[in-house]
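FORM 12-B: Structure-to-Sequence Request
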């Protein structure tokens, strides 16, 4: 090899040594900056994770998770509440329709009694006329005339009073019937609306609770992955000292090779062997530089990947949970208030029907007393009739008119008895229907409302817990959002630093090109230079510089002409799974 060529090679090695020294100094500053930044980012992720853990703990609270079954229980209780009233109203409407007709019939019967009372009054007048005609002989019939007159007055007054009450009750029942007829469609619509509204509310609550419980956990998992990435970057950057030593060892190797090539050339054999060792040394350093380049490129890639993960970490979904859940809570509270209004209306409606049925009970009591009195009067009339017939029979032809009146009274009494019996049967039917209605009214009782009220109370308490959890989630989410915004803001500086690292270590390519050119020059000047060294001797010579197993593995690969060993992954994980 000519002196000129040797000088050129030595110059190239010295230049590479100087460039590596400058590179080491520059990158050390950049690496330290990255380390400080990522240590700060690690602190931010710890803050976010603590907030997320608090939110997760809040939504995993049993009182929050129980709101869905509580709303389902409320829905079932409300459906039963409306359904029972719907069924009861249908039954009451049917019986009330029958009651109206029976009261109308009872009113007609009562008016029939008034007609009989009028006829009895007429018989009383005829009896008085006949008593006057008979004179002293007919004095015994004066009592009959008096009794008939009293009976007529009493029955007329009772019948008119009873007819008035019956008509009034019939009008009240008719009104109740109209209310029930109007209430049925409303109840049916209400039941359908509640079915739909509660179904929608349950779906909305289920979705909100899913968000409330799932999103913070997903967000937390995401941030944990980013935290692992950050920890990996911090660990790798902290291990930069190994790469720095590797660069220094390459510098030392260049100095050694340069010194050997600048030595005395008196012994040709020794010079030829020295060229072989220089060639082997250059090959080793080319491998080492490639390893350094790959390691740093790996750093840059992982740092960028980590920054990409940080930029994608968003608390937007988490921040929206609290307001969304609060909105659903307001919707459920509105449904609860509507159910309470419905219950109140139902109670007022129930009291109105109860008052109507209470009036019927009073009417039935009045009818019952009237019937008892009528039966007593009928029996008394029959007794008077029999006595009058017997006495008229003793008088013979003279009392023929009285006998005819007595026979008429007997017919009136029989007719009165029939009408009274009809009235009694009608009253019994009305009483039976009223009793059945009272049983149906049990659906409107406080006892039947107890299950609904209990479900309302549980749901109200659950909504209070949900409201507290949602408010806490909203507050935690805002803090998380502020922390994630700060986390992302600091990635800009890291990006600039990584760009500088890329630029610095990009110089290794030019250095490799130059060193590989030196090695080719040796191959051109000494065609058998690859065989002019002892691998064991070369390994012993250069391994003295190396303090890491990686460097020694690279040295052996260079001497054997095999592939570079795979660099150990310094980072925890390769990607961030985002939601």
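FORM 12-B RESPONSE
SEQUENCE OUT:
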């Amino acid at each position: 090899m000519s002196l000129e060529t040797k000088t050129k090679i030595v110059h190239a090695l010295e230049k590479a040594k100087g460039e590596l020294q400058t590179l080491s100094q520059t990158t050390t500053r950049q690496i330290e900056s990255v380390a400080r930044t990522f240590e700060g980012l690690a602190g931010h992720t710890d803050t976010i994770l603590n907030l997320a853990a608090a939110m997760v703990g809040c939504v995993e609270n049993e009182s929050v998770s129980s709101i869905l079954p509580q709303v389902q229980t409320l829905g079932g209780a409300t459906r039963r509440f409306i359904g029972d009233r719907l069924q009861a109203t249908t039954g009451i409407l049917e019986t009330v329709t029958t009651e109206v007709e029976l009261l109308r019939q009872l009113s007609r019967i009562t008016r029939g009694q008034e007609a009989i009372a009028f006829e009895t009054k007429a018989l009383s007048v005829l009896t008085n006329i006949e008593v006057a005609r008979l004179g002293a002989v007919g004095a015994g019939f004066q009592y009959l005339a008096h009794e008939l007159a009293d009976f007529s007055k009493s029955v007329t007054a009772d019948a008119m009073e009873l007819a008035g009450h019956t008509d009034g009750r019939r009008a009240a029942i008719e009104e109740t019937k109209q209310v029930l007829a109007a209430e049925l469609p409303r109840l049916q619509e209400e039941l359908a609306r509640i079915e739909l509204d509660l179904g929608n509310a349950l779906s909305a609550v289920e979705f909100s609770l899913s968000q409330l419980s799932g999103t913070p956990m997903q967000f937390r998992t995401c941030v944990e992955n980013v935290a692992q990435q950050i920890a990996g970057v911090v660990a790798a950057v902290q291990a930069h000292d190994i790469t720095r030593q590797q660069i220094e060892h390459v510098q030392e190797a260049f100095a050694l090779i340069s010194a050997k090539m600048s030595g005395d050339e008196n012994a040709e054999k020794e010079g030829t062997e020295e060229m072989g060792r220089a060639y082997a040394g250059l090959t080793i350093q080319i491998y080492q530089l490639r390893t350094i380049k790959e390691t740093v490129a790996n750093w840059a890639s992982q740092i960028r990947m980590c920054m990409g993960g940080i930029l994608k970490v968003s608390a937007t979904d988490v921040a929206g949970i609290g307001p969304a859940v609060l909105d659903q809570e307001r919707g459920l509270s509105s449904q609860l208030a509507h159910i309470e209004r419905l219950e109140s209306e139902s109670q007022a409606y129930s009291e109105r029907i109860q008052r109507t049925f209470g009036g019927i009970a009073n009417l039935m009591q009045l009818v019952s007393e009237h019937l008892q009195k009528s039966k007593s009067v009928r029996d008394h009339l029959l007794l008077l009739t029999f006595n009058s017939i017997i006495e008229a029979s003793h008088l013979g032809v003279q009392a023929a008119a009285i006998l005819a009146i007595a026979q008429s009274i007997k017919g009136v009494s029989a007719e009165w008895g029939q009408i009274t019996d009809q009235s009694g049967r009608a009253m019994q039917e009305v009483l039976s229907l009223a009793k059945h209605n009272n049983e149906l009214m049990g659906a409107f009782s406080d006892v039947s409302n107890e299950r609904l009220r209990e479900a309302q109370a549980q749901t109200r308490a659950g909504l209070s817990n949900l409201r507290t959890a949602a408010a806490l989630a909203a507050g935690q989410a805002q803090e998380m959002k502020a922390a994630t915004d700060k986390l992302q803001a600091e990635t800009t500086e890291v990006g600039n630093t990584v760009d500088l690292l890329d630029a610095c270590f990009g110089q290794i390519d030019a250095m490799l090109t130059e060193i590989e050119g030196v090695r080719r020059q040796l191959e051109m000047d000494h065609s058998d230079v690859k065989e002019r060294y002892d691998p064991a001797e070369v390994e012993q010579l250069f391994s003295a510089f190396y303090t890491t197993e990686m460097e020694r593995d690279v040295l052996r690969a260079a001497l054997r002409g095999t592939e570079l060993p795979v660099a150990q992954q310094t980072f925890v994980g390769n990607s961030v799974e985002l939601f």
